[in-house]
Specification:
transmembrane helix
């Protein structure tokens, strides 16, 4: 698997397996680095700043992975932004403590939770479960053609 192509390119198509692998890698990196930030720096101003930088840094590879998967579904890669941008904003609101606590979320907390849940369901169904366009489409050849 070409990691540079998966995480840094917006060209071409990837199949469901590569999308799942890319998302799992991004999630593991996020959890590990987020845990290190919280343990070393806590949830104070500098820890929150580093968590924000982490979220912004992981946005690009997440967008690249999702854009290529939307290409496989014969949809523009920009479609990923309809889910990723609201999720990023909701996550940043949570990082900055604007949503209450996990045990007692405020109104904004409930809205952010619903946004993240909606995007998660949409992406899992659209990108993780549904098959891509068979054969050639507007964004390139079938990524499964090389496997068969």
């Amino acid at each position: 698997m070409d990691l540079q192509y998966i995480f840094a390119s917006f060209d071409g198509r990837i199949n469901r397996a590569k999308w799942w692998a890319g998302i799992v890698i991004i999630l593991v990196v996020s959890i590990i680095i987020g845990f290190i930030i919280e343990v070393v720096f806590g949830t104070g101003a500098f820890g929150t700043f580093l968590a924000t930088v982490l979220a912004l840094a992981l946005f690009y590879p997440t967008y690249a992975v999702c854009a290529k998967r939307f290409h496989d579904r014969d949809r523009p890669g920009k479609t990923a932004l309809y889910g990723l941008v609201p999720s990023l904003i909701a996550g940043l609101f949570q990082t900055w403590g604007l949503t209450g606590t996990p045990q007692e979320p405020n109104g904004l907390g409930w809205i952010c939770t619903l946004i993240n849940l909606g995007v998660l369901l949409w992406f899992v169904i659209e990108l993780g479960i549904l098959k891509g366009t068979p054969g050639q489409n507007h964004f390139g050849g079938d990524p499964l053609a090389a496997i068969n």
